[in-house]
Amino acid sequence: MFATPSAPSCSSSTSKVFLSSRSKTGWASVLKSSSSSKSIADKRTKTFRKSSSSSSSPSRVVVRASSEQPKDPLLVRAARGEKTERPPAWMMRQAGRYMKVYRDLAEKTPSFRERSETTDLIVDITLQPWRAFQPDGVILFSDILTPLPAIGIPFEIDDYKGPLLDKTIRSEEDLKMMHSMDYSKVPFIEESLKILRSEVGDTATLLGFVGAPWTLCTYIVEGQSSSTYKTIKSMAFSNPTLLKKLLSNVADCIGEYVIHQINSGAQCVQIFDSWGGQLPPHMWEEWSKPYIQQVIAKARSKYPNVPLTLYANGNGGLLERMALLDIDCIGLDWTIDMADGRKRINSVQEKAVQGNVDPVVLFASEDAVEEAVRTVCKKAGPKGHVLNLGHGVLVGTPEEKVKHFFDVSKTIKYD
User: Fold this and answer.
1) Cys staple from 93: which of 56, 233, 393, 412, with CB 3.0 to 4.6 Å?
2) Which regions are flagged for Low complexity bias (predicted)?
3) CA 93 to CA 111: how far, in whole Å?
């Protein structure tokens, strides 16, 4: 699974050419100044002396700034479970091959690793759908496997076979190859997020993302994509101690990686447990859930108020278990009725929800797209709902239907 999922600035004409017009020196200045471009939410009490025609002695008057704080971006508020004026919208795999501008870039830069590990390319690709469709969320163009080299696990991506790992971890000795996060191996993550935050500002929410420990470990143990996961599932029975150590080590590193992304500008982070739904619920409870919570706890220790979203493909049998996690928002796949999913989650603990239009609907008519969007939003309600697909955008999806999806979302108003 390649995990990539990205409103123009006030002047869309200038945003379209920002990459070509911004020199390397310009990027450097953005990176240098981004840490000082803090929110203007801090307001100070101002004092001044006012002259009075009726008195020769000036009186001291205190003028206090309004206590009303600037609102966080729409998507951040929705992911926290707040009521919003309309449903914020973004799409998983928002940037990708369904867009002609991406395909043209990919022809010039055929290596996925290069596209997802070169700062200028990451920024450009991330912003392609933002310029075209003005979504409320801009998600970093990257891959869930990107941090693996930073923890001692190299990988390659084959155009046909997908991710390939020369070295797998299947023994205590293999476990020694892992180490704590070395961010010098992934400098483009911090650089890209800082530039993106500067470009987007608060006109949309900048999202980071990570893979859940179980999902990452399927690659680390299997060595490639799998349809059965028999090696790692067998390890759960034959060597549970080793698998628990591996999962815990990965969870600790991914928790740090979440913090790193937030430090760099991410305002919300999504955890993809892409292959969690391949586990029976009782196995997910033991082999995925505790390690997702470990990631969450690590991130919360530094950033308790940054919203975290969890998405697991095929999570229909997991919703109540997912609701027990200290997560802010739960993504529903397209096979779950939104009203039913919301009810099941809230029966355990009230959470925000995300989703869950069937991505295939985007191949249908504009009327069908509008009906699907409005139906999901009506079932989700005005509080704590982030509009999304129930899975990533499919290759071949018409761009005009993606645009219509976002256009419709902006016409839905809540009282």
Assistant:
1) 393
2) 1-15, 50-67
3) 18
